[in-house]
Amino acid sequence: MRILNMIMGIILTILGVFSIANAGLTFISMAFPIGVILTAIGITECISYRSRYDDEEDRHWVLIDGLTTFILGIVVLTGQLAADIAVPVVFGMWSMIAGIRYLVIITHVDIKEEKNLDFYWTAIVSVCNFVVGLYTFFNASLFNLSVLMMLGIIFVIQGINVIKVGFDTTYKKPDLIKTKEELVAEAEKKAEEARAEAKIAVKKARRAKAAIREVEEIKVTYDIFNEPVVPPEELLKKESVDDAAEQTDGENNDDR
């Protein structure tokens, strides 16, 4: 499924380049191949999302992306997008939602611990998707690009995104056909990942303890500053009462 996803991404990118090169054509003339390719990509992502074992939450986002692409392909194939005015808006919404979706994913990444090439790649593609999708709503007021020109740009960006999905898709070989060396290597990899997660957990625990100490210090300072101030008259009165009580206790002891 990894190779199939990458092939689908390359096909979508080629479709985008072709659309840009033939921007003078009408959308109706390209509706069938566009619908077929989008439907095939949606089905591929829906099937291959189970192969993403690295991140349970990320798998669900891939499934949502696949379902969205599949539905859009069916809409195009059934001829529901016949008006050229509606086409850029629908595809722009598709691109913009995809950008927002992946921007949400990277917000859950610990930037200090996991900021790498994959993070920057996802961030750049997500922003491009969002900006291009948003632009389709203002095309008539700005550059007034043709329908296929805008779709071509969207397809190129989405094609790169699909290639990335295929690249991140992993193949899990069944345990029954694994060799002893493969099982040992897999166990060592899991142990290394567990050690890395433990280090991150220790750092988080230290930060939490430091935060608790800061709160306790703030609380002690707050209690000191908010301790009620006793007026001098009250102190004198209290000292007099204490002296009288001590004197009474002394007289009682003498009587005994």
Secondary structure layout plus pairing:
Blueprint lengths: L1 H20 L5 H22 L7 H22 L8 H22 L3 H4 L2 H19 L11 H22 L11 H46 L6 H24 L1
Describe the structure.
α1 packs antiparallel against α2 (27-48), α2 packs antiparallel against α3 (56-77) and α4 runs antiparallel to α6. With 256 residues, this protein is mainly alpha-helical. The model has no long low-confidence stretch (mean pLDDT 77). The chain has helices spanning 2-21, 27-48, 56-77, 86-107, 111-114, 117-135, 147-168, 180-225, 232-255. The chain is flat. Helix content is 79%, strand content 0%. It has two domains: 2-172, Alpha Horseshoe (Serine Threonine Protein Phosphatase 5, Tetratricopeptide repeat), CATH 1.25.40; 191-255, no CATH class.
Please outline what is shown here.
With 256 residues, this protein is mainly α. It contains 9 helices and no strands.
